[in-house]
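Q: Focus on the shape:
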Amino acid sequence: MRIDLHTHSTASDGTDTPAELVRNAAAAGLDVVALTDHDTVAGHAEARAALPEGLTLVTGAELSCRLDGTSLHMLAYLFDPEEPELARERELVRDDRVPRARAMVGKLRELGVPITWEQVARIAGDGAVGRPHVATALVDLGVVGSVSDAFTSEWLANDGRAYVEKHELDPFDALRLIKAAGGVAVFAHPLAVKRGACVPESAIAELAAAGLDGIEVDHMDHDAPTRARLRGLAADIGLLTTGSSDYHGSRKTCGLGDCTTDPEIYGEIVRRATGAFPVPGAGG
């Protein structure tokens, strides 16, 4: 089985619609794909309706969190999307995205970049606006060569000149909410240092003690030594290890299935979940 547990659609900051994403996942030879848009489940219904035969959909979301001033992302799988407290927190994060993006546009204009809010809003479309949309505008304007080039201290990284904070969950609260909704929690790209500051390994151990199920190890932003280090940490504190592409369509260079999750790990994630079940494709 080929299992990719971290992808994004136009419901957040990907370039494939949810329907296109599941069709592309099947074409890429995947058996299981998780749709984990940022702080939203808006793409799940469309993905279900278009799910090709032979492909299983894992519903999820990537929750924005912050610990002691450092941003981190928590992948939540197979939770009940109707659970009211978690739904309310997702809405708070989404509602803060527009003023945050407007503020980043304002900072960029102060830095001499001829970017407009209308340009960013057009790129985001109906998706949950975020930094990748602002980064795409910078590419279109010729300010940077690629979306990844915009995520530096020069521009949009966590310590960047145009960075603006947004409402984010405390990760311990996120774990509590995910568990209350019957979900499974995996820390996304925990040591992706190229994105900015990362939480210390001691914090990962504290999260594990609070109910964290796993960490994403095989990811494009983790080099081989980092992956080995994370596997050792996971073994020491009893965490599952996952792999995934963090696919964003044409917005990033990674392809569906570039990194995958071991079928036994996937089986354990499904076993632990009580809020929802994987959706088998019926040729939508």
In short: The CA atoms of residues 62 and 267 lie 20 Å apart. The longest strand covers residues 56-67. The chain is about 40% helix and 15% strand. The two ends are 21 Å apart (CA to CA).
